[in-house]
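User: Some background: our group keeps a shared notebook of sequences we're curious about, and every so often someone picks one and asks for a predicted structure to add to the entry. Today it's my turn. The entry only has the sequence so far, pasted here. Could you supply the structure so I can complete it?
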Amino acid sequence: MCIRASHVTASLPRNKLSDFYGSGAFPISYPNEWDKRHGRNGHGIWLHGTPSDTYSRAPRASNGCVVLANADLDALSNKLQIGLTPVIISEQIEWLSLDDWNTERNALNAEIERWRSDWEGLDTERYLTHYSNKFSTGRENISDWVKHKRQVNSGKTWIKLKLSNFSVFRNPGKEELVVVTFDQDYRSNNLSNTMKKRQYWTKDGGKWRIIYEGAG
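Assistant: Of course. Here's the predicted structure to add to the notebook entry:
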């Protein structure tokens, strides 16, 4: 089983649940955008505790959920952030050397900054090169996205774009895929908003490019 960088979406306290869920429950966002794109389905996967008379559940006896002993769930619960804390389940761990990790992280960070700078600088054609030909929002493919962005940016005289509170996780598996979540503060001559944004970046032609983008 491999859940690819789903996120905690809510916190359900013990007093709102039956004893079956133990100390509480944290629903997660499976299937995420990447899972849906690949036809993976399912629903109702939670991270939760065990009944008061059970210390731990046997392996693969969780009905698809992620079940921890109540003591372990209690230790984690204060650190879980709704919408931000990732839940990654993989059959194995891939270890990188510190040098390889820094090289990959710095290359991606530099590409994200170029994406931000090109958007803020209203260099629309250069901005669009940061998107993969396989890009999709779920509603728009790359052709729709290019047309939409050219139309929107044609009405801009200036843009100010600030990104903060980054969360960056590489998905397990053979795919070179990274999930990036951040707070976006957008200002322009005719629109201002703030939002949490989530992007999926993948290696495309040897370069990091965005293959999905949407609200986080």
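Suggested note for the entry: The mean pLDDT is 88. The domain at 98-215 is CATH 3.10.450.50 (Nuclear Transport Factor 2; Chain: A,).
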